[in-house]
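Service request form, structural biology core

Requester: graduate student, group of Dr. S.
Request type: structure prediction, single chain
Budget code: on file
Notes: please return the result as structure tokens.

Sequence provided:
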Amino acid sequence: MIRTAPLAAVLIACLLTPALAVVAEAQEAGQQESPPAEAPPQEPESQEAPPEAAPPPLQGQSAAPTREELLRLIQEQRKLIEALMKRIEDLEKKLAEQSGNAEAHRKEVEALRLQIESMTRRLDELQSELPAADYQKALEERLKRVEEGAQKAPELPPDVVSAGDFPGSIRIPGTDAAVKFGGRVRVATVMTLDPLGSVDRFLTNSIPVDEAVGFGEGRQTNINANTSRFNFELRTPTGAGQMRAFIEGDFFGDGNSFRLRHAYGQFRGFLAGQTWSTFSDPAATHEDLDFEGVSSENVIRQPLIRYTWLPKEKLSIAAAIETPRVSVTNGTGSELYPDVVGRLIWKFKEIGHLQFSGMVKQVRAAPLNDPEDFVSEPGWGASLSGVVPFYRWNLTDRFIFQVNGGYGASRYINDLNSLGGQDGVFDPATGDFEVLPAFGWYLAYEHMWKEWEITRETNLRSSLIWSMVNVNNAPFQPGDAYHRTHRLGVNVIFSPIKRMDLGIEYIWGTRENKDGSDGSARQIQMVVIFRF
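Core staff response, request fulfilled:
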């Protein structure tokens, strides 16, 4: 009878090995955060679409267990199996010590073995249900992110156009195309508290250093709605993939006339038309309320041809040629070659990303006193930007930042692009030409005020944004040449309903000229936005 103990141990080990493997696989599946392999919203259509989610249970039937419940059940099964294994080991020891009771213990071991087999079958059933629960949860989260992103910034082109994930669209009768209409109504009340060269937005470059230059009265109020937008998007299958077209405009042209913002088409990773420059990072979505935007940020729309590919799930690489623009002082710019731009984006923590972009261009211009005598110099620019989320009191706040700089790259710095003439400068006395180096940066901190129920319901949030722009002046530039500006903004925004934002922002800025003279200005803006 004593010989049966090793034999039982061997049989039990053989039977337990598959069970333990299943348990280990279940534990690994529970620890994984990413959803199962499926066609993400930004992959080519050639990949298979994920299967449809399982239908809801019929009335009177119990609902399918959630992923968390399945993981809890698997963990409980694992603990029970471990307890039974410990019991078997104890019994085997007793078999070796008490030969008289060996037969009774052998029967008990056999009963425990049968119980383990039954529990293992149940574990297999739970494991088979886990992928469906994982997929359903991942699908719901993915659709929620897509819908929220489409509502807030529909003009942002995806890296790669794919089928599906087109919330809010309607099918065009008699065709296989779908169209979506959208836009926003934006009303801004702008109260300027000091002399400033703009009454409807805060132009840091227009801060007067000498109030006697005639910028008008300091205190002014302006109410405008010409920054309201309208857009439509169309998607249609082509047999080789989805095609996407997007057109958007606002009424910020002269005399409130219609102005084109975006007009582009996409097929897979290929994009052509007018949209955000590849050098820009519109995904660094700080919530500054001023329509002009942060003075140092790199955000510009221009015609381009771009290709984007995704070597990894969270990595994006793009290359483009874009329309050139040269703006110089005491001369006239002339564009001969397109700007060549490259970009790399790495995404992390769901809402976080880092972007690096580079640009090379030709700075070609002629002096005003000799418009046929063109000179050409190389220009370049570099940009680093990103969104870094962090967690405090179970909330997600964000740091948003950007650093831009280069030679002859003023078009890609917001305040210098508005001012003009900052790519280079001609010496009116000698005709010498010098490309101007410039750089700028901003840092924004956004806090979500969700400590109380009322602030959670209204999505109350606030931002603090500080920016700086600097131009290294040429020695022959006059003393009143633009040298450095600072801008500080703080705001509070809430959303009484999902598609409506109300906010107020205080802005303060300074301008310093080459000779060291400076001035400052303040502005208060109250903004209401309705999205549709």
